[in-house]
Design goal:
GO terms for molecular function: ADP-dependent NAD(P)H-hydrate dehydratase activity; ATP binding; metal ion binding; NAD(P)HX epimerase activity. By secondary structure, this protein is an alpha/beta fold. It has 17 helices and 18 strands.
Length: about 500
C-alpha cells in the first residue's frame, strides 16, 4: 500500500523506550533531555513572539520533560513559570533529576492554588501517555484554568486527559494547539475526540534510529492525501469503459431520490466506466434530467432488479433506500446475488435488524449506525473507535469504514487504517452517499476491497478538504466535492 505512517499503542512505545535504554545504551535521562529540547525548539519556532512561558508539570516523566523545557527556556532569558498540581512530586529518577536541575538553575515550582500566572504560551506536561482515567479533582481544576486562559498550548506526547490508545477522554482534557508525540506517533491522536483537542500533531524520534515496522509492527496506519497516487495510477492510452467497471446504485425511496443520485454521480466522478441507478418509478425522470450519464431504471420489486444485478460489477445499496418492504426486498436480492457490495445508510439499519455475515461487502457506517450494528450506544462506539471498527469487521466478516473525525478502516486479519484528512464541514446529510459511490467506483476499477475502502475514504476526505478551502467548512454541500473528486482521482494531473 502507500507510504503510510505507522501508529502505535502506548504499551508499544514504552517498550521502544525500554529498548532504547537497554539495547541502544541511551540513558533515560538523555532521552528526557532530548524530549525537552525538541519541545522547546518546536515552541520557539511556532510562537516566535512569545516571551512568557508557562509549564504545567505532573509527577511522571512527562513532567520531567516539562522541567527540561523550562530550564532551557530560562537559560535563554525567557520568563518561565512552572506550575504543578498540589502534591505532584516526581516519582521516578529521571523526573526527579529534571526537577533538581530546574531548581539548581534558579527556577521555582508554584503549587497550583486556583490561579495561573499570565503567560503567552502554555506547555502541558501533566500526564503524558499513561492516563486511562479521568484526571483527579486537583488536575481537573488546573486543566480548566489552562483551557480558560485562551492561550495556545503545546502538549507533550498527548494532551493531558486523553487516552493515547483510543483518542477518547473520560473526563476533562487539555485543549492543545500543537501536540509533540515522542519516539512514535500514538494511535489515539488521530481519531475521535482527539481531533478536537490535539491540534497539529508532530512526531520527534528523539534521534533514535528509524522504526523498522517489520520488527515493530504498528497497531494502525495513517494515510494522508499525498498517498492517493499509490492507488490511482494513470490509465493506458487504449483504455475502454468496460475495463473500469459498472456500479449499480440501489436506493431512492419516495422522497429520497437525491441520495441515490449523489451516489451515482460520485461513482462517475471517480472514474467508473458505467453507472446505473435502480430506483422508484416516480424518481426516474428527475434523475435522468439531473444526471443523464447514469442509466436510471424504474425498479418496483426484486424481480425487476435481477437483470440489473447481473450486469453490474459492484452494487452500492442504501442511499435513500428506506426501511420498508421495498428496501428490504432490494437489499435481500443484492446480498443474495454474490456481487461485491457497498452497504450504507438504510442498508446498514436493515442489516442491524437482521444481522448476518456479509463477507462480500464493504460497510460504511457512521457511529450511530455502527452502534446499531453492534448493539451498543453511539457513545460506546466513540469511546474506542478502533475496537468498534474491528468488532464490526469480525461480526460481519466484512471490510468496515467507520466514518467520523479520523475515519477508521478495518477488516478481518488486517491492521486498521486511519484517514488523515477530512473536516467538520463534511458532517452534513448526503456526504455518506457520495462516499458510497466513491468506494464502489474504486472497487469496480479492480482495487481489492480493503484497498478500495481505504483509497475511497481518503479520496472522499481529501475532496472535502479541497472544497472547504474554496469557501470554508460551514455550508459545505456533498455535491461541492464532485469537481475535486475528479481532479484528485487523477494525481498525475495535479
Amino acid at each position: 500500500m502507500a507510504d503510510m505512517l505507522p501508529l502505535y499503542r502506548a504499551a508499544q512505545v514504552r517498550a521502544m523506550d525500554r529498548r532504547a535504554i537497554e539495547q541502544l545504551g541511551v540513558p533515560a535521562w538523555e532521552l528526557m533531555q532530548r524530549a525537552g529540547a525538541a519541545a522547546w525548539r518546536l515552541l520557539r519556532g511556532s510562537w516566535p513572539q512569545a516571551r512568557r512561558i508557562g509549564v504545567a508539570c505532573g509527577p511522571g516523566n512527562n513532567g520531567g520533560d516539562g522541567y527540561v523545557l523550562a530550564r532551557l527556556a530560562r537559560a535563554e532569558g525567557f520568563e518561565v513559570h512552572v506550575v504543578s498540581p498540589p502534591g505532584a512530586h516526581p516519582r521516578r529518577d529521571p523526573a526527579r533529576k529534571a526537577l533538581a536541575a530546574w531548581r539548581e538553575a534558579g527556577g521555582r515550582v508554584e503549587s497550583f492554588d486556583g490561579m495561573l500566572p499570565e503567560v503567552d504560551v502554555w506547555v502541558d506536561a501533566i500526564y503524558g501517555i499513561g492516563l486511562a482515567r479521568a484526571p483527579s479533582d486537583a488536575v481537573r481544576s488546573l486543566i480548566e484554568r489552562i483551557n480558560a486562559s485562551h492561550r495556545p498550548v503545546l502538549a507533550l506526547d498527548v494532551p493531558s486527559g486523553l487516552d493515547a490508545d483510543t483518542g477518547h477522554a473520560p473526563g476533562i482534557v487539555v485543549e492543545a494547539r500543537l501536540t509533540l508525540s515522542f519516539i512514535a506517533p500514538k494511535q489515539g491522536l488521530y481519531t475521535g475526540m482527539a481531533r478536537d483537542v490535539d491540534g497539529d500533531v508532530r512526531v520527534d524520534r528523539l534521534d533514535l534510529p528509524p522504526i523498522d515496522t517489520t520488527a515493530e509492527p504498528p497497531s494502525a496506519w495513517l494515510v494522508r492525501d499525498t498517498d492517493l497516487s499509490a492507488w490511482l495510477a494513470p490509465r493506458h492510452a487504449n483504455a475502454h469503459k468496460g475495463e473500469h467497471g459498472h456500479v449499480l446504485c440501489v436506493g431512492g425511496e419516495l422522497g429520497m431520490g437525491g441520495a441515490v443520485r449523489l451516489c451515482a454521480e460520485a461513482a462517475l466522478r471517480t472514474g467508473v466506466g458505467l453507472a446505473s441507478v435502480a430506483t422508484r418509478s416516480a424518481g426516474v425522470a428527475a434523475l435522468v434530467a439531473a444526471r443523464p450519464e447514469a442509466m436510471t431504471h424504474a425498479v418496483e420489486d426484486s424481480a425487476a432488479l435481477a437483470p440489473l444485478l447481473g450486469r453490474a460489477t459492484v452494487v452500492a445499496v442504501g442511499p435513500g433506500l428506506g426501511q420498508g418492504a421495498w428496501g428490504r426486498a432490494l437489499l435481500g436480492a443484492a446480498v443474495a446475488c454474490g456481487k461485491p457490495l457497498v452497504l450504507d445508510a438504510d442498508a446498514l439499519n436493515l442489516l442491524a435488524a437482521a444481522p448476518r455475515p456479509v463477507p462480500q461487502a464493504i460497510l460504511t457506517p457512521h457511529p450511530g449506525e455502527a452502534g446499531r450494528l453492534l448493539g451498543m450506544s453511539t457513545a460506546d462506539v466513540q469511546a474506542d473507535r478502533y475496537a468498534a471498527a474491528s468488532a464490526l469487521a469480525t461480526r460481519y466478516q466484512a471490510v468496515v469504514v467507520l466514518k467520523g473525525a479520523g475515519t477508521v478502516v478495518a477488516a478481518p486479519a488486517r491492521v486498521p487504517v486511519v484517514i488523515g484528512a477530512g473536516n467538520p464541514g463534511m458532517a452534513t446529510g448526503g456526504m455518506g452517499d457520495v462516499l458510497s459511490g466513491v468506494v464502489a467506483a474504486l472497487l469496480a476499477q479492480h482495487l481489492p476491497p480493503f484497498e478500495a475502502a481505504v483509497a475511497g475514504a481518503l479520496l472522499h476526505a481529501a475532496a472535502g478538504d479541497a472544497a472547504a478551502r474554496v469557501d470554508g467548512e460551514r455550508g459545505l454541500l456533498p455535491s461541492d466535492l464532485f469537481p475535486h473528486l475528479r481532479r484528485l482521482a487523477n494525481p498525475a494531473w495535479n
